[in-house]
Write a structure and sequence with these properties.
Elements (H helix, E strand, L loop, with lengths): L1 H18 L15 E3 L2 H6 E10 L5 E9 L5 E10 L5 E13 L4 E7 L7 E8 L2
Parallel strand pairs: 1-7
Antiparallel strand pairs: 2-3, 3-6, 4-5, 4-7
Length: 130
């Protein structure tokens, strides 16, 4: 009987190790995150250390996102912004993807301004350039 319990415990432990845990949490676009990397390459290579937010005189939301290349090589990414209302729903105001070339370990600001005054929050999306 002891041998059977040991085998079950060993099997459960092995199954737990195979499932594993990710050291970096996966950010899902609909989760309310302000910055969302859209693929694994960008998830490893680009960070967004700061985002400045302000409202223009006519009530539109203006953002400046600092994107940082974590790699020791030049990369090319595309960045976009989806503006959302105060409940988190898109306002049908989505900036098209812009191509951005980041030099080795460089940081660069990208500016977005909403088209209307309904935007209260946003999601900045980054993907590898194709």
């Amino acid at each position: 009987m002891k041998r059977m319990e040991f085998m079950l415990l060993l099997g459960a432990l092995g199954l737990g190790l195979m499932c594993g845990c990710s050291s970096t949490p996966k950010v899902v676009e609909g989760s309310g995150a302000k910055f969302v990397p859209l693929d694994k390459g960008v998830e490893r290579s680009v960070t967004c250390p700061s985002i400045q937010e302000r409202f223009t005189d006519d009530g539109r939301l203006e953002l400046i996102a600092n994107l940082r290349n974590r790699l020791n090589r030049r990369i090319e990414v595309q960045v976009s912004c989806v503006f959302k209302d105060d409940k988190g729903f898109p306002t049908n105001d989505e900036a098209p993807f812009k191509t951005l070339i980041l030099d080795e370990n460089a940081q660069e600001g990208v500016r977005f301004v909403s088209m209307n005054n309904q935007a209260r929050t946003y999601t900045i999306r980054v993907r590898q350039a194709r």
